[in-house]
Amino acid sequence: MRFMVIVKSNEDSEKGVMPTEQELAEMGAYNEELAKAGVMLAGEGLHPSSKGARVRFDKDNRATVVDGPFAETKELVAGFWILEVSSREECIEWVKKAPFRDGEVEIRQVFSDDDFGDAFTPELREQEARIRATTAAQHGS
């Protein structure tokens, strides 16, 4: 099972305050533990929303771009991990070890092919397999 662990932003991360050397070292040690255990597929921090943009679509599929920051939003994302574990509970146990002193993370399971049932036809499964193979080849995975 794959889970996305979403790290919520806070006032400092939205101001672009960078982590201290100690915080970077602690996070590096945690990430190394995840990697050595074979559960970390990806993990990154994100720049503040002031450097981002949103693309909103209307019912006619017209796109409107809105530049950050996104002050009207209460919960923004500051970073993420993608973990592959055997259960939600195992993911929670890993997340509880994260070196955070303050804040909140959200854990969400990533859909697997089987979650889509019969709507995910053999043709669509083949297409998805091709897309994943192309992406892996392009990025050396």
UniProtKB/TrEMBL annotation:
Family annotation (SUPFAM superfamilies): Dimeric alpha+beta barrel
Listed Pfam families: YCII
Top-rank taxon: Bacteria
YCII-related domain: residues covered: 1-111
Transmembrane segments: none
Coiled-coil residue windows: none
Xref: InterPro entries: Dimeric_a/b-barrel, YCII
PANTHER family for this protein: BLL7163 PROTEIN, BLL7171 PROTEIN-RELATED
Family: Belongs to the YciI family.
Protein known as: YciI family protein
Organism annotation: Blastococcus deserti
